[in-house]
Amino acid sequence: MSALSTISTPAVHGRRSAAKSVTAAETAAVKQPAAAPTTAASAAGTSGRFRRIAGKVVKGIGVGMLILGALVFLFLAIGPRILGYQTSTMLTGSMAPLINPGDVVVTVPTPTTDVKVGDIITYHIPVEDQRVETHRITEITTTADGGIAVQTKGDANNGLDPWIATLQGKTVDKHVATIPYVGNAIRALREPIVMNTLMYGAPAILVIGMLASIWTKNPDNTAPQVTVGAGDESAA
Fold it and tell me: CA-CA to 6 of 20 to 30 Å: which in 13, 19, 129, 207?
């Protein structure tokens, strides 16, 4: 009996060790990470990222156009009424390089008695079509009836303007600022096709961008849960 016990005990321990080894191998196999995504899944992820980026770009363009339109409206329509300034677009190069064609001239009403030689004013010339001109005052005189008359000249012109302008009213528009290049943009914005594009195109682009952002949203992907069976736990 002692010999049988001596032989049987190592055999039992050997079977238990083998069972534990098999169970450990199965558990390790279960705990291995999921396989890498396939090529199709990678392509789908890339396409989703592209759609999200495209949606954000379209939405950004729409918002930018709306903001631009609002700023132009405030500058041209609301600002002069509240702050009292006036804007006009320089059409010629007679005041270059200070004011170039396409620049916006910002003026404020100034009492005619306060203007002086060297000031730049915007006024109606007293000849031809009485167009609006923006030139620098070179001489100021008083008329017989007590009015203010000015001689003007464009900075880029060789000679004086061929007229003497009597300032009408109690104020004259005096130059206070120049905004480069904006005049061309304002003139373009006043074109019917551009105004219609801003009025209808910007909201349409914004709506498309919002729809695109909704369309490209993906539900959260949760990692698959691996559950070890009861039999495996008992075996371990």
Answer: 19
User: What pLDDT sits at residue 11?
Assistant: 47
CA distance linking residue 178 with residue 96, whole number of Å: 12
Which pLDDT value is given to residue 158? 95
- What are the per-10-residue average pLDDT scores of the chain (236 residues)? 45 49 50 54 68 78 79 82 91 96 95 96 93 96 93 97 94 96 78 74 74 63 48 45
Residues 118, 110 contacting (CB under 8 angstroms): no
Task: Sketch the domain layout of the chain as residue ranges.
Answer: 51-83, 86-180, 185-212
Whole-structure pTM over 0.85, yes or no? no
pLDDT of residue 175: 98
| Fold entry, domain 86-180 | Umud Fragment, subunit A (2.10.109)
Q: What is the 3-state secondary structure (H, E, C) of the chain?
A: CHHHHHHHHHHHHHHHHHHHHHHHHHHHHHHCCCCCCCHHHHHHHHHHHHHHHHHHHHHHHHHHHHHHHHHHHHHHHHHHHHHCCEEEECCCCCCCCCCCCCCEEEEEEEEHHHCCCCCEEEEECCCCCCCEEEEEEEEEEECCCCCEEEEEECCCCCCCCCCCEECCCCEEEEEEEEECCHHHHHHHHCCHHHHHHHHHHHHHHHHHHHHHHHHCCCCCCCCCCCCCCHHHHHHC
Q: What local confidence, expressed as pLDDT, does residue 126 receive?
A: 94
